[in-house]
Amino acid sequence: MAMTPAPGYGIVAKLLHWLIFALLAVQYTIGSIMPHIGRNSLDEGWVAWHFSVGAAILFFIVIRLVWRLLHPVPLLPTMESWETRLSGITHWALYLLIVVMTLLGWAATNARGWQVKLFGIIPLPALAPKDSSWGHAAGDVHNVLVYVLLAFIGLHVVGALYHYFIKRDAVAARMFFSSGRD
Ligand code: HEM
Ligand code: HEM
Questions:
Q1: Which H or E run contains 118?
Q2: pLDDT given for residue 181 in this prediction
Q3: Model-level pTM?
């Protein structure tokens, strides 16, 4: 009896996965080289880029989540139960953290009296009033979640490398473009 291959990620899911990976790499770079955002900061240069790239990340992660919910992809059945549990938790933590931290960054931007523009052009409504204490608190939590998200990305990448180099199973290839299963 011929084996039916497990369903894999389609081209849209793959493109969105790697687009968001690239945007996050850019965003972490900007976040570390931009001047610290404080009372005397200006909404220009790297700081303005941080808001535009961040809004783009939120835009694409929402599209990705909707796409994911409409096109569910089961984890590979060859994985051990602890691997399935850990990768399931990690994937949903990544989605949740990206959505929550971009929303908090947006609110923090408004609390400093600035407007967030999607792709630097489309003005977005304010989530928090100027000078609101919760908007500033959102910025503090945002600054902490920067590291929590990084830790989950690290765990996820270690997992992908473990499947590719140690277990040598088909998991990592599911997110590559060359797997021939688009
Ligand atoms: C997942 C995407 C994001 C990442 C990885 C990220 C990363 C960072 C980093 C590294 C910092 C510097 C923290 C520090 O100085 O200690 C920061 C601060 C900040 N980010 Fe983001 N950011 C993201 C999304 C956003 C978005 C979408 C916005 C707004 C539209 C935003 C607005 C801010 C603001 C206002 C601060 C200063 C917070 C404060 O101290 O009040 N960020 N972010
Ligand atoms: C910013 C960094 C990254 C984020 C936020 C991220 C996020 C995600 C998420 C949320 C999923 C789950 C997809 C779903 O089923 O809905 C996923 C799957 C996957 N990612 Fe990433 N990823 C990142 C970087 C990487 C890197 C660098 C690699 C490779 C070294 C990688 C390899 C994979 C693989 C192989 C899968 C599919 C796992 C499976 O088939 O069960 N990811 N990623």
A1: strand 117-118
A2: 45
A3: 0.92
